[in-house]
């Protein structure tokens, strides 16, 4: 292989890493083919089929194309777990094609040799267009296969009910009444300006929109369009003083810093990109103040190329509320997670759809879940939570009432037990007293009998009758019945008396 063509093919491999650069790679191969006109080569692929890397994180699919010019060429598509892909085209030199073979090839081409399956017959080794078309065809085949597989893989990872939820959001957004619909970057470009200038307007609107409401962004872009002499172009922004830019965009978030970014980006666009905005994401993110999200949206809106999902704070929040992603912490992480399962055909529209939805219904604070068509499907629905809360409240109320009733029952039972215990104690006490009283009754009755006998003796002995002034004799209490309560009380009294007597 000549040094020139090898260098070109190395360059080809380097550039053929993404879908967008495949065509460019094909053009480079054509250039290499031009330089090799006198050295027709045969190429063959060294590998074909699917293979997985040792770590299991990468899968490579190799497609093989056979032609009379390129014996075989291989296009390998590498897919990693993160969803990133890398397309690498490899060619291997086998042997020189002789002049006779070349003539044969040309003859067969002129006869219009049929192409079957993935076999591609090169019309001429000396025409660059045919060489480019071979590579183009290879790449298209690879891309088509890859897209098909990727779509199937994505659908396997998709969350349940996502399509219903997505269609509900589309229905809710059908009125297009969100601020982003009337003041978003799509509508801020001056329709009377030329293409590059309109693209620049979109880029400026996106640069000013971060951390800023659409109303303020719209006002700032309109002011720039009207105030800068000559309108809003990279030239006028570069020529304007930073102070003037600051005055024009005053009110948007970080207006001082954004004025500097505008000036820096305009200067770079003029110096490095010929006055038009960059056409690829790697070039776009070189501009000061332009990040991945902005570059993705710029590619979709200004350059009409969908290269990913533009995830801002609204998309990030809603994707997490709907559990479309697994609790991601940053918008960039959300973008990667969403791109793992969301079909490519939706990547271009999902940003506008969810931003408007986030502005009108699924707002950051107090989302209007009661108005949302997804209130019964959304895991974060406050409507559902409220209903659940009411049910919980009812259950708690019932539990409280049950507990209260049980407590009352317990108290009643306790009271019953206490009264029974008391009664039992009293009965036991009573028994004891009765036993004691049986003894004491004899003693008391004996004392009373002795006293009575003494009185009788005194009267019989002629003793003085009790005078009228002297107190009449107190009747002795009749001994109580041993089993009555009053008898117990009296017994206690009697016992006390007996103690007193004993001590005296
Ligand atoms: S139910 Fe509520 S949280 Fe869920 S998507 Fe709708 S508005 Fe957002």
Automatic annotation (TrEMBL):
CDD domains: ENDO3c. GO terms for biological process: base-excision repair, AP site formation; nucleotide-excision repair. Residues 23-40, 63-80, 100-111, 120-131, 390-399 have a biased composition (Low complexity). Bifunctional DNA N-glycosylase with associated apurinic/apyrimidinic (AP) lyase function that catalyzes the first step in base excision repair (BER), the primary repair pathway for the repair of oxidative DNA damage. The DNA N-glycosylase activity releases the damaged DNA base from DNA by cleaving the N-glycosidic bond, leaving an AP site. The AP lyase activity cleaves the phosphodiester bond 3' to the AP site by a beta-elimination. Primarily recognizes and repairs oxidative base damage of pyrimidines. This is Endonuclease III homolog. Residues 469-481 have a biased composition (Pro residues). The keyword DNA damage applies. Keywords: 4Fe-4S, DNA damage, DNA repair, Glycosidase, Hydrolase, Iron, Iron-sulfur, Lyase, Metal-binding, Mitochondrion, Nucleus, Transit peptide. InterPro entries: DNA_glycosylase, Endonuclease3_FeS-loop_motif, HhH-GPD_domain, HhH_base_excis_C, HhH_motif, NTH1. GO terms for molecular function: 4 iron, 4 sulfur cluster binding; class I DNA-(apurinic or apyrimidinic site) endonuclease activity; DNA binding; metal ion binding; oxidized pyrimidine nucleobase lesion DNA N-glycosylase activity. GO terms for cellular component: mitochondrion; nucleus. It comes from Salpingoeca rosetta (strain ATCC 50818 / BSB-021). Residues 482-495 have a biased composition (Basic residues).
């Amino acid at each position: 292989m000549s040094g020139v063509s090898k260098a070109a093919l190395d360059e080809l491999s380097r550039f053929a890493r993404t879908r967008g650069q495949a065509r460019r790679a094909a053009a480079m191969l054509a250039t290499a083919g031009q330089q090799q006109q006198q050295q027709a080569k045969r190429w063959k692929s060294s590998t074909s089929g699917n293979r997985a890397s040792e770590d299991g994180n990468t899968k490579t699919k190799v497609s093989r194309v056979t032609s009379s010019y390129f014996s075989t060429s291989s296009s390998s598509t590498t897919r990693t777990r993160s969803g990133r892909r890398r397309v690498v085209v490899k060619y291997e030199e086998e042997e020189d094609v002789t002049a006779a073979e070349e003539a044969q090839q040309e003859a067969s081409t002129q006869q219009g040799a049929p192409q079957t399956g993935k076999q591609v017959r090169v019309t001429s080794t000396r025409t660059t267009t045919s060489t480019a078309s071979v590579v183009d065809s290879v790449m298209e085949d690879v891309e088509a296969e890859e897209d098909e597989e990727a779509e199937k893989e994505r659908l396997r990872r998709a969350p349940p009910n996502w399509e219903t939820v997505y269609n509900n959001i589309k229905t809710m957004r059908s009125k297009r009444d969100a601020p982003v619909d009337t003041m978003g970057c799509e509508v801020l470009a001056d329709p009377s300006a030329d293409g590059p200038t309109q693209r620049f307007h979109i880029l400026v609107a996106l640069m000013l929109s971060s951390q800023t409401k659409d109303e303020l962004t719209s006002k700032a872009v309109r002011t720039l369009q009207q105030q800068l002499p000559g309108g809003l172009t990279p030239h006028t922004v570069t020529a304007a003083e930073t102070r003037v830019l600051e005055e024009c965009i005053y009110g948007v978030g970080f207006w001082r810093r954004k004025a500097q970014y505008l000036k820096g980006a305009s200067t770079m666009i003029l110096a490095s990109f010929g006055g038009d905005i960059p056409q690829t994401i790697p070039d776009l993110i070189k501009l000061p103040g332009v990040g991945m999200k902005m570059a993705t949206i710029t590619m979709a809106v200004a350059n009409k190329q969908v290269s990913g999902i533009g995830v801002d704070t609204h998309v990030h929040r809603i994707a997490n509320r709907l559990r479309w992603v697994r609790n991601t912490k940053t918008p960039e992480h959300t973008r990667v997670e969403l791109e793992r399962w969301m079909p490519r055909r939706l990547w271009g529209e999902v940003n506008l759809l969810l931003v408007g939805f986030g502005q009108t219904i699924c707002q950051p604070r107090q989302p209007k879940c009661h108005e949302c068509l997804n209130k019964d499907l959304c895991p974060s629905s406050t409507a559902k939570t409220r209903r659940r809360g009411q049910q919980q409240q009812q259950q708690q109320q019932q539990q409280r009432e049950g507990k209260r009733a049980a407590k009352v029952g317990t108290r009643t039972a306790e009271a019953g037990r206490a009264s029974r215990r008391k009664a039992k104690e009293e009965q036991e006490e009573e028994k004891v007293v009765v036993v004691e009283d049986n003894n004491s009754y004899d003693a008391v009755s004996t004392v009373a009998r002795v006293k009575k006998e003494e009185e009788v003796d005194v009267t019989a002995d002629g003793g003085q009758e009790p005078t009228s002034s002297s107190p009449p004799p107190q009747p002795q209490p009749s001994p109580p019945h041993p089993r009555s309560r009053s008898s117990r009380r009296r017994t206690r009294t009697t016992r006390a008396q007996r103690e007193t007597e004993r001590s005296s």
